[in-house]
Design brief:
Blueprint: E1 2-3, H1 14-36, H2 39-45, H3 51-72, E2 75-82, E3 86-93, H4 107-121, E4 126-133, E5 137-144, H5 147-154, H6 165-177, E6 189-195, H7 205-214, E7 219-224, E8 230-234, E9 240-244, H8 249-259, E10 262-266, H9 269-283, E11 285-291, H10 293-315
Length: 319
C-alpha cells in the first residue's frame, strides 16, 4: 500500500496523545471521588459500572479517527487492470525437432492449439502478432486484433530445419518498436517465445534479450517437450535414424531473466495450455495504482455508528 498525501499520516501521533490524556483524566476522576468518600462508602455512594462498557465506545471512536486520518492520506493499492492498448508477439519454433511426439500428438500441433486458445482469451483490444522461426524468422501475421487472421496464420505452421532464436527475437523487437503509440508513447509490449531447443545459428539470443530489457519489453519463454523427446531424420545414403531432441529450459530461463520476463516449462499439451492461460491473464492486464479512500471512509463511519449504538444502548446518551 502507498499513499497519495502521506503527510496527513503525521496526525496519527495525536491519537496516542489523546489516549494518554484520557487515562490521566480517568485517574484524576477516581482520585477526586475518593476525597469525598472512603473506599468503604464509595460503593454505595457511587455504584460501580462495568468498566469495559464505559470505555468501548471511546475505543471505537478512536479507531474511527485513526481510519479517517489514513483516508485523508489517500491510500492506494496495486491491482491488475485490463490493458487498453498492448502488443504481444508470439514466437513459435517450427524447427524439425517440433515433430517430436513426446507431447501429443506432436510438439508443433500442441503448440498451435495452445496458441489458438491463448489468442481466443486475450482481450480484443490487445494486438497480437505471430512469428514462425527455424533457421529463418518469418512474420506470419503483423500485430492485429483480428482473431480470425491470427488463427489462419497459426494454420500455416510447418516444421523443418534448425533453430535461430536470436534472429526471431530481433524480428519481434523490430516489429514492436514500429507499433503506433499514443502521444509519442509506445504501448505496453511483450514477447512470448515457445521453443524446444537451443539456438543453433544467428544472433546471440541473450544479447537480444538484454536489448529487450532496455526497451522494457519482457520475454516470456516456454520450454516445450521432455528429455525423452526424439525425431527420425533421413540419412544421406537412405534410411532414417533416431535423434534425441530434449528441450533446453536453462537457456530459455537465461533469456527470460535477461529481459526481465519469466520462464515456463511445459512437458505435455495440458500443461502448455495452462501456461498460455496464465500468460493470457498476465499479459492482458497491467499493474496500476487504485485509490481506496472510500473504503477507509466507509470503515470509519461503521466504527462511529457502532460506538454510538453501544453508548445509546448502555448509557442512553452519546459520549
Amino acid at each position: 500500500m502507498s499513499f497519495g498525501s502521506p503527510l496527513f499520516l503525521i496526525a496519527l501521533v495525536l491519537i496516542p496523545v489523546a489516549v494518554a490524556r484520557y487515562v490521566v483524566g480517568e485517574r484524576r476522576r477516581r482520585a477526586a471521588a475518593r476525597e469525598f468518600a472512603s473506599d468503604a462508602m464509595l460503593a454505595s455512594v457511587a455504584p460501580r459500572q462495568p468498566r469495559w462498557r464505559r470505555h468501548a465506545p471511546l475505543v471505537l471512536y478512536g479507531l474511527a479517527l485513526a481510519v479517517l486520518v489514513i483516508a485523508a492520506a489517500k491510500p492506494r493499492t496495486t491491482t491488475a487492470v485490463p490493458v487498453d492498448r498492448a502488443t504481444i508477439m508470439l514466437l513459435n519454433d517450427v524447427s524439425g525437432s517440433m515433430q517430436a511426439t513426446d507431447v501429443r500428438p506432436n510438439r508443433l500441433v500442441a503448440a498451435r492449439e495452445a496458441a489458438r486458445a491463448f489468442v481466443d482469451k486475450v482481450p480484443h483490444t490487445v494486438r497480437v502478432g505471430i512469428v514462425a522461426f527455424n533457421q529463418n524468422a518469418r512474420t506470419l501475421q503483423p500485430p492485429t486484433t483480428d482473431h480470425a487472421a491470427l488463427n489462419a496464420a497459426l494454420d500455416e505452421l510447418r516444421a523443418s530445419g534448425t533453430t535461430a532464436t536470436g534472429d526471431a527475437l530481433d524480428a519481434a523487437l523490430t516489429t514492436l518498436q514500429r507499433q503506433p503509440g499514443v502521444l509519442g508513447k509506445r504501448p505496453p509490449s511483450a514477447i512470448v517465445l515457445l521453443t524446444d531447443g537451443t539456438s543453433k545459428r544467428g544472433q546471440d539470443p541473450i544479447q537480444v534479450a538484454q536489448q529487450a530489457a532496455r526497451l522494457k519489453i519482457p520475454i516470456y519463454t516456454v520450454a516445450l517437450g521432455t528429455p525423452e523427446g526424439t525425431i527420425r531424420i533421413r540419412k544421406p545414403g537412405g534410411g532414417t535414424s533416431v535423434a534425441s531432441v530434449p528441450p533446453d529450459p536453462q537457456s530459455l530461463a537465461q533469456i527470460a531473466h535477461a529481459s526481465r520476463g519469466r520462464a515456463f516449462t511445459a512437458e505435455d499439451s495440458g500443461q502448455l495450455s495452462t501456461v498460455y492461460k496464465h500468460l493470457g491473464h498476465q499479459l492482458g492486464t497491467k499493474k496500476a495504482k487504485r485509490e481506496i479512500t472510500a473504503a477507509f471512509v466507509g470503515g470509519a463511519l461503521l466504527l462511529l455508528a457502532a460506538g454510538g449504538a453501544m453508548s445509546l444502548r448502555w448509557f442512553g446518551r452519546l459520549p
